[in-house]
Write a structure and sequence with these properties.
Helix content: over 70%
CATH topology of the largest domain: Rhopdopsin 7-helix transmembrane proteins
Number of strands: 0
Pfam families: HTH_18
CATH architecture of the largest domain: Up-down Bundle
CATH class of the largest domain: Mainly Alpha
Protein name: Helix-turn-helix domain-containing protein
Strand content: under 5%
Keywords: DNA-binding, Membrane, Transcription, Transcription regulation, Transmembrane, Transmembrane helix
Number of helices: 15
InterPro entries: Homeodomain-like_sf, HTH_AraC, HTH_AraC-typ_CS, Tscrpt_reg_AraC-type_HTH
Distance between the termini: 77 Å
C-alpha cells in the first residue's frame, strides 16, 4: 500500500470517527435530551457506516455483496431520518408516530434482501447481477435525492410562514443550520453520483468529501448552538407581545431619556424578571439592553446636534438631556454607533 493510499485512508476515516463521536455525544452525553439530537446522532452513525463501506470497497479486495448492498441500503434509512429531523427542528412538540415507520419499508426490503445475495450467485449470474445492482443503485440515489428535496421544501414552507415576522435568534440559527446541512448532503450525494456517471471521478472522493463536510457542519452546529434548540423555538408564545410592549415604553414613550433606566426597572414595568426581559431584548432587538437603550439615545442626540437652534447647547448638555449619566459614556456610545465623536458630528451637520 502506497503512502498516498495510507493518507487517503486516514483522511476519509477521520470524518467517520468524528461523526460517530459527535453522534455519541448527542445521544448519550448531551445534557439536553431531545428527539432532534437523537435523530441527528442516528444520521451520523448510519452515514458513517455507509461511507465506511465506501472506504472498505475502495481499499479492500472482493468485498462481499452483503456489505455493498447493506451499505447502500442505509441511504434509504438516512433519507427519512433526515426528513424527520427537519420536522423536529421546525415544528414544536414534534413526535414520531407509527405512520412514519411506513417510510422505512424500502430500507427494510433491500437491507434484508442483501443477506440472501452471495458472491457465488453474482459470479454465476453476472448479467442479472449487473441489472439488479444498477436498478437498486438508481432507486437508492433517487430515493435519497427525493428526501433531500422534501426536507428543503419543509424548510422553505416554514420560512415562508415567517416571512413577515421578525425572527428570534434561535429561529434564525435554525434556518441557517438547516440550510447548511441540506447543502452538505447535496454535496455528498453529488460526489457519489459523479463517480457513478464518470469513472474518472475516484470512488474515494465520496468519503473525503464527507469528512470535510462533517467537520464543517460540526463546527457550525456548535457555533450556532443548534444542539441546544429545536422546533420549540417556533412555539407560539407571548415573547413578541412583550417585546412590542417594551418597544412602546422605550421608543414611543421615550423611556430611554431617563438616566436611571435599568433592566430591572424595565422588567418591573412589564411584569417580567430581569433575565426574561434581557432575553426578549436580545432575541428581537438583536442587541443587549445597554445597546438597545443607547441606540435610541444616540438618535435623539443626533437630532439635537444637527438642530441649528440647539447650537448653544454644550455636548455635555446634549448627553445629559438624552439620558446619559456621564459625558464619557455618551462619547463612547456615540462613537460606537456613528463611528465619529459628537463634536465632529455637529461640525459635519451644521
Amino acid at each position: 500500500m502506497s503512502y498516498l493510499e495510507i493518507l487517503l485512508i486516514i483522511i476519509s476515516s477521520a470524518g467517520l470517527l468524528h461523526g460517530v463521536l459527535f453522534a455519541f455525544y448527542l445521544c448519550f452525553f448531551k445534557k439536553k435530551k431531545t428527539i432532534t439530537n437523537f435523530l441527528l446522532g442516528l444520521i451520523l452513525v448510519f452515514m458513517a457506516f455507509r461511507v465506511g463501506k465506501s472506504v472498505m470497497k475502495n481499499f479492500g479486495d472482493d468485498l462481499e455483496p452483503i456489505f455493498i448492498f447493506a451499505g447502500l441500503a442505509l441511504l434509504l434509512l438516512i433519507g427519512p431520518l433526515f426528513c424527520w429531523y427537519m420536522l423536529g427542528m421546525t415544528r414544536p412538540n414534534f413526535k414520531l408516530t407509527k405512520k412514519y415507520l411506513l417510510e422505512l419499508i424500502p430500507f427494510g426490503l433491500i437491507f434484508f434482501s442483501s443477506f440472501f445475495l452471495t458472491k457465488d450467485w453474482f459470479d454465476a449470474n453476472s448479467r442479472e447481477a449487473i441489472f439488479l445492482f444498477a436498478s437498486v443503485l438508481i432507486f437508492i440515489y433517487f430515493h435519497f435525492a427525493f428526501y433531500i428535496f422534501l426536507s428543503w421544501k419543509i424548510v422553505k414552507t416554514v420560512k415562508k410562514n415567517y416571512k413577515n415576522e421578525e425572527l428570534t435568534k434561535s429561529q434564525k440559527a435554525i434556518f441557517d443550520w438547516l440550510q447548511l446541512i441540506i447543502i452538505g448532503l447535496v454535496i455528498i450525494w453529488a460526489s457519489y453520483v459523479l463517480n457513478i456517471l464518470d469513472d474518472k471521478v475516484p470512488y474515494i472522493i465520496g468519503p473525503i468529501v464527507y469528512s470535510i463536510v462533517i467537520y464543517f457542519l460540526s463546527y457550525k452546529a456548535f457555533k450556532l448552538k443548534t444542539t441546544e434548540i429545536d422546533g420549540e423555538a417556533f412555539k407560539a408564545n407571548d415573547s413578541i407581545l412583550l417585546f412590542k410592549e417594551i418597544s412602546k415604553l422605550v421608543v414611543e414613550d421615550k423611556l430611554y431619556l431617563e438616566s436611571d433606566l435599568s433592566l430591572s426597572k424595565l422588567g418591573g414595568l412589564i411584569g417580567q424578571s430581569t433575565q426574561k426581559t434581557s432575553s426578549i431584548i436580545n432575541q428581537f432587538a438583536k442587541r443587549n439592553f445597554n445597546d438597545f437603550i443607547n441606540y435610541y439615545r444616540i438618535q435623539e442626540a443626533k437630532k439635537a446636534l444637527s438642530d441649528f437652534e440647539s447650537q448653544k447647547l454644550t455636548i455635555s448638555s446634549v448627553a445629559f438631556d438624552t439620558g446619559f449619566s456621564s459625558l464619557s459614556s455618551f462619547n463612547s456610545a456615540f462613537k460606537k454607533f456613528e463611528g465619529i465623536t459628537p463634536s465632529m458630528y455637529r461640525k459635519l451637520n451644521n
